[in-house]
């Protein structure tokens, strides 16, 4: 299911939490790319994935598409057993997801970055 956010009244859109955007119970792998270093990490342990998803469950507000830019802080993909992307987001100030664009409501980008960075320090780097 895709949600088109273009042309809608985003000021009246209700905030959501990240877990409302995908079914976390179907995630079997998380792939994280660090836009600064180019390193890629993967989570495949169910407990690690569950803990990571719980930490990321932050409040998001739908927003308009940001101005075009290049680069990103982190790109995170949640995949099922078949390798299909269930949910993906890229941190570029605004969260660009496969479900639309969102901005943080109660937490700033730095707290989201800290959650991701903590996970990276506990994960193994994988080759591209």
The total of beta strands comes to: 9
CATH fold call:
Immunoglobulin-like
Q: Which CATH class is shown?
A: Mainly Beta
- The gyration radius over C-alpha positions equals 14 Å
Tell me the CATH architecture: Sandwich
Major sheet: 9 strands, antiparallel
Alpha-beta classification: alpha+beta
Low-confidence stretches: 1-9
Strand order of the largest sheet: 1-4-8-7-6-5-2-3-9
Brief description of this entry?
This protein has a single domain, classed as Immunoglobulin-like. Helix content is 18%, strand content 32%. It has helices at 46-55, 109-121, and strands at 16-17, 29-34, 40-43, 59-62, 74-79, 85-92, 94-97, 100-104, 125-126.
What does the model show?
With 128 residues, the chain is α+β, with helices and mostly antiparallel strands. The chain has a single domain, classed as Immunoglobulin-like, CATH 2.60.40. It has a nine-stranded antiparallel β-sheet. A hairpin with a 5-residue loop joins strand 5 and strand 6. The chain is globular, with a radius of gyration of 14 Å. 20% of the residues are buried.
């Amino acid at each position: 299911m895709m949600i088109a956010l273009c042309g809608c009244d985003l000021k009246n859109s209700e905030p959501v939490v990240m877990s409302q955007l995908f079914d976390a119970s179907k995630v079997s792998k998380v792939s994280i790319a660090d836009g600064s270093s180019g390193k890629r990490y993967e989570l495949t342990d169910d407990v690690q994935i569950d803990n990571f998803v719980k930490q990321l469950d932050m409040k998001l507000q739908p927003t308009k598409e940001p101005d075009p830019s290049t680069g990103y802080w982190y790109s995170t993909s949640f995949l099922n057993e078949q390798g299909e992307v269930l949910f993906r987001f890229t941190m570029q100030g605004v969260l660009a997801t496969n479900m639309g664009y969102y901005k943080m409501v109660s937490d700033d980008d730095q707290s989201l970055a800290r959650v991701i960075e903590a996970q990276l320090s506990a994960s193994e780097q994988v080759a591209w």
